[in-house]
Design brief:
Order of helices and strands: EEEEHEHHHEEHE
Distance between the termini: 32 Å
Strand content: 25-35%
Number of strands: 8
Shape: globular
Largest sheet: 8 strands, antiparallel
Oligomer: single chain
Helix content: 10-25%
Number of helices: 5
Length: about 190
């Protein structure tokens, strides 16, 4: 496993990704922005003109079994593929009831009942994703999920989100913002 990577998502007037839509599905929205910059660095650079900045860290797979982790590694393609010109940043915060559950109880809801990992695997390798943990960092969200995909896979991405949001796990979500992005052709 790779060492943890600190990632910052800066919403503002500059960045490689153009924001096409921001929609709060639960809880408060984030301020509207035109662009998103993604910074992968332990040492943040000063960024001017940002409306908000969210940070998270990659790390160990907290709810994933060894078999699932191996399957994900075999099927998942990396980020920054040239054809993946669409992206989504989906910050999520779960409620106190979720965090009051023991780790095994959260795992049971997440996978055995809601099939979160299995649903996501149905869309690999077309949709690449990376999860960033931020609860322990004092951020306003618990997770920042980053997805990248080719334009022709956007309907599949929407279908995946619809399936995930229909599960019991989503009853524990108290804040969710869906931010859709396009990387302009060079």
């Amino acid at each position: 496993m790779s060492p943890p990577l600190m990632v910052r998502f800066h919403g503002g007037a500059a960045g490689a990704w153009r924001v096409t839509r921001m929609h709060a599905l639960a809880g408060a929205p984030l301020p509207a922005v035109a662009r998103l910059a993604v910074e992968e660095s332990a040492d943040p650079s000063p960024v001017a003109g940002i409306a908000w900045s969210l940070r998270g860290s990659t790390g160990n797979l907290r709810y994933t079994s060894r078999v699932e982790a191996n399957s994900l590694a075999m099927r998942q393609q990396g980020l920054a593929r040239p054809d993946a010109r669409r992206a989504a940043l989906i910050p999520i915060r779960k409620n106190a009831a979720w965090w009051a559950l023991a780790q095994d109880e959260r795992r049971a809801i997440l996978e055995e009942e809601s099939r979160h990992i299995a649903i996501g695997m149905d869309y690999l390798p077309a949709i690449a994703r990376r999860l960033h943990h931020c609860r322990e960092l004092g951020e306003p969200f618990d997770f920042l999920t980053w997805f990248e995909y080719a334009p022709e896979h956007e309907p599949a991405f929407d279908e995946m989100l619809e399936r995930l949001r229909a599960q019991r796990e989503w009853h524990f979500v108290e804040r969710e913002v869906d931010i859709r992005l396009v990387r302009d052709a060079a």
